[in-house]
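Posting this for the archive.
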Amino acid sequence: MAQYVGILTAGGDSPGLNAAIRGVAKAAIGAYDMQIIGFRDGFRGLMQDRIVRLTPAELSGILTVGGTILGTSRDKPNKMPIGGETMDMTDVMVDTYHKHNLDVLVCLGGGGTQKNAFQLVQKGLNIVTLPKTIDNDVAMTDLTFGFDTALGIATEAIDRLHSTAHSHHRIIVVEIMGHNAGWLALGAGIAGGADVILIPEIPYDIEVVAEAIRNRQRRGSNFSIVAVSEGALSQEHAKAIAKAREREESGEKKKERKAAKKERKALEAEHQGNTLRVAQQLEELTGLESRMTILGHLQRGGTPSAGDRLLATRLEAAAADFIHDGVYGVMIASRGEGASSAAGGRGRQAQLVPIDHAWVRWRATSASAWATGDAREDRRSSKIALLLQQTCSSTLPVVDPTGLQPVSRNRRRFQPLPQSERGNPHPHARKRLVVEDSECSRPGGRLGHAPLAGHQIPAQGDAARWAQTRSPIRGGRTGPRRPGSHPLHHRPRQDLHRKPLRPQPRTHRKLTRRREGRSAG
């Protein structure tokens, strides 16, 4: 007997949703002969019984299309706006589920969708969820589809902002999505070469940010790119919200808890427009002209990246297998190169950036090396720190960046050649340069910007003199190279415009015959 599978997309849209819909439907239809029913506009469509039959014809050509063909909404089953009122419509959704004889309902969404789906599980429905969000903050999974595409869009935006910031000698403050998680801003900031990165997990001190930009000015860099996550907080604001939340949780009386909640919401509402304040404060403190760019929903749209298509297809194929095996009440999580089930529940917290995450360590180490003067002046590799570890120890248990040993990039030292290589008589060839770059030997090292560890190259000044004086390809000839004299491009000299002194023999015979014919006529 064929199984009936319902599918819906809820919460904010993201690239890769259509690839996920296509993946689960094709795997379910092709491998297990299941029937797929799509519900339009998330849980509202489930409540209103607005369906679309997903056949192979409906799924054709949607892999590369952004958004979702089913539509989406942020409505919650237990808080559904109906006719100006907020009502609990969970029972109506249960009736729709049974009306279509569904064996399972697949819900694609982020953290909010996972919680809403759990309410349906408590009502006795078979639910399978998949992690979708550009914020990458869903717990118990390595990646969510949508994140890779949004990361690429934000990185490209920072790349483009470099040229205008450099031309006008400005500070460009770019706001990147991410809600209360800093994955998107941190990843795009590192990949795009941002000079300052502000994320929600590490409250910032605007004075420290301004001093970092002034240090760049002293080194001759008259522009800066500041990547700000939309949830980034100043230290003062973070402390105020933390105190309000603590009173809200520990208040003995309901009136006290209600007042603390109201205060917290007011502080969170005040946080809106924080990026604009950051730009204005930096302009006042540094004297550099500042401009703000908010990427906004630009990061949600467009064609999904290859990474998101592969991830969505892999998870959806795994979802079809779990459904066939009767495994319900789980989220299909990405674990390494595979997929596994993760138990659902209301209590799962958002996955934030750990303070000891590798991205944070790379960033802090790079900034430490720059501060000590050992790093090269390179805006792609020498970053200002996640600055703000050293300034927020009062609010978060962070790693002291001063304890990180600075990495000396490209430490150069001359070393005599081994005895077997001393046959070359040229004086400048008796030295070689050994490049030691410890960063190149670990994952994520700057392999594109520095030689591999232990790689031997000629000394910079000596190599040029050696190439001019005794190049093997020129047969040991000395002196500067004449333009066009490279042996690979050499051709015998010939003047193509000079007429031959006499015609070729065959041509001479032809001319003779013509003359003889004319004289005979």
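The chain has a mean pLDDT of 76. The first helix runs from residue 17 to 32.
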